[in-house]
Specification:
heterodimer; A: 282 residues; Rossmann fold; 10 strands; 41% helix; globular; B: 266 residues; mainly alpha; 2 domains; 11 helices; 2 strands; disordered N terminus
Chain lengths: 282, 266
């Protein structure tokens, strides 16, 4: 499974006075098994891009190739796309609707037309993967759960469809620090289990640096950068000029250098940073 | 798709019509509806159409924008037109087997059609040229005498303001929920009517939950700013009549007189 986006363009309200170019000639490639972080301002076009990958929006021009199959092609059915690509929206807990957690998670697999046995198995697997105790939560109403748990159930609802590409739009938004860390661990765990492509959006540069193999920077509907965390966060000044930031460790190393301490700049990990500072100070 | 719905839409502008007092515009709109039913002949409709055309021209709202509001009632319009043209008895104009079209039928059908079009165009002009807030303010002021009888006029106006304010929010919310469920493979297009209704459950339940959440948040935010209903509450912008509004009232009465007179023309 690989994703190839070619010259994607999207315009909202085309032909009206409120016309707005949301995506402008965006191209990139994501190889199989990669964990990709997307950063950019609110309104930069990130969410629009994610909805394109799932076929929810139609491109004005450009192509999206999933494993060589162009999903912008009219002959490709939506169900076929959604079988392969799972999209978890921002605040996904607001889409819960069933009486029990089990039924809610089963909604996706049911729409795929799977048989009862397969659905039950997938629900159990998904709930366990997102770190919930299947036996404990399956008969509860999703509305009785805590905020962090609700979000896990909602994510499980997409995970249960076993997507080859899992997309998460700001999965940690509005959560307390503990739930925040739990969700990140969960993302890592799902990625490790399925070995699928995981794409996630975050405003937290530390999370992006820690999790991603590849980072895309979107600004004003254009792809500005595309590379490994070291490559992207090496361009600290450029990111700052766009109003974005770098991970705290990178910021620390950069400032130490400014103050005259000759530390290596290519460090994103806190323990490596510690070693490096000790080395230079010796 | 769902965002295309435009209910009680406001067309931003700064024309004379936009600046008129909301109370005047509400009364004029109501009276215009009544007048449309007072009118009973060709001359009356010409007067009403001309009057409306002048107001539209002064308001600088594109004509196409006004007629967009007619789309939803097109079916009703055609239905009343067809009913009148075929069912009204009188002097036969054209006959084919048992179907007869009479002179009176065509007459009533045309009158009804024009009446409906003018009705919708006239009333939508009210919302197009009046900010929702001014509109509810105006309604509150006009209802004020009723508050002496114990009618909670301020509360009614506040409810209307909030309802208008949250139409776009709820539409946006619906759009979001629909997309989220579509991403989970939900299908809203195919199937028969029962299946389609059942398919709406994944949208309606989260929408209700969202609506209640929004309502709670809003209530809390209002209370946090010491809102406690209408009693003793003053306005930041008091509604005040200007010279143009008095002239507006005069023109309104002149138009009313003209319409009543028109009945004796035919």
């Amino acid at each position: 499974m690989s994703i190839e986006v070619k010259n994607l363009r999207h315009i909202y309200d085309k032909g009206l006075p409120t016309e707005q170019v949301a995506l402008d000639d965006v191209s990139f490639t994501i190889d199989d098994g990669k964990l990709v972080g997307i950063i950019g301002h609110t309104g930069s076009g990130k969410s629009t891009l994610l909805q394109h990958l799932n076929g929810l929006l139609k491109a004005d021009s450009g192509n999206i190739l999933i494993d060589g199959v162009d999903i912008t092609d009219k002959d490709v059915t939506m169900l076929e796309i959604r079988k392969k690509i799972g999209l978890v929206f921002q605040y996904p807990e607001y889409q819960l609707f069933e009486e029990t957690v089990e039924k809610d998670v089963a909604f996706g697999p049911k729409n795929l037309g799977l048989d009862e046995e397969e659905i039950a198995e997938r629900v159990k697997e998904a709930l366990t993967l997102v770190g919930l105790d299947y036996e404990k939560v399956k008969d509860k109403s999703p509305f009785d759960l805590s905020g962090g748990q609700k979000r896990r159930v909602a994510i499980a609802g997409v995970v249960a469809m076993r997507p080859r590409v899992l997309i998460l739009d700001e999965p940690t938004a509005g959560l307390d620090p503990k739930s925040h860390q739990d969700i990140l661990q969960m993302v890592k765990h799902i990625h490790a289990t399925f070995g699928n492509i995981v794409i996630f959006v975050s405003h937290n540069m530390d999370d992006i640096a820690n999790l991603s193999d590849q980072i895309l920077v979107i600004s004003d509907g254009k792809k500005i950068m595309d590379g490994t965390p070291l490559e992207v966060f090496g361009k600290r000044d450029e990111l700052k000029a766009m109003g974005l930031s770098v991970p705290r460790v990178t910021e620390l190393m950069a400032r130490l250098k400014e103050k005259g301490l000759d530390v290596d700049q290519d460090i994103l990990d806190i323990s490596k940073a510690e070693e490096e500072i000790v080395r230079v100070l010796k | 798709m769902i965002r295309d719905i435009t209910l009680g839409q406001y067309y931003p502008g700064n024309s004379l019509i936009h600046r008129l007092d909301a109370r005047l515009k509400i009364i004029v709109a109501l009276l215009f509806i009544v007048e449309l039913f007072v009118v009973n002949n060709f001359y009356g409709f010409v007067i009403a159409t001309l009057a409306l055309a002048i107001v539209v021209a002064v308001s600088r709202v594109p004509v196409g924008f006004i007629f967009r509001g007619l789309k939803p009632i097109l079916i009703i319009l055609l239905f009343t037109f067809a009913l009148n043209i075929f069912l009204v008895k009188g002097t036969p104009l054209w006959q084919w087997h048992s179907i007869t079209i009479t002179y009176e039928g065509v007459n009533t059908a045309l009158f009804m059609g024009v009446r409906l079009i003018l009705l919708i165009a006239g009333t939508s002009l009210l919302t197009l040229c009046t900010k929702p807030l001014a509109l509810t303010d105006g309604i509150e002021k006009l209802l004020y005498p009723l508050s002496k009888l114990g009618v909670p006029t301020h509360e009614i106006a506040m409810m209307m303001t909030i309802a208008l304010r949250f139409i776009p929010t709820l539409l946006e919310e619906t759009d979001k929920i629909m997309k989220a469920q579509q991403a989970r493979g939900a299908d809203f297009e195919s199937g028969n009517i029962f299946k389609k209704i059942k398919n709406l459950i994944p949208i309606i339940v989260p929408l209700f939950v969202s609506a209640f959440r929004i309502a709670m948040d809003l209530a809390m935010a209002m209370e946090a700013r010491c809102y406690r209903g209408g009693k003793g509450r003053t306005k930041m912008n008091e509604m005040k009549y200007h010279l143009r509004d008095y002239i507006g009232y005069l023109l309104m009465f002149a138009f009313l007189a003209l319409v009543i007179l028109s009945r004796s023309f035919g």
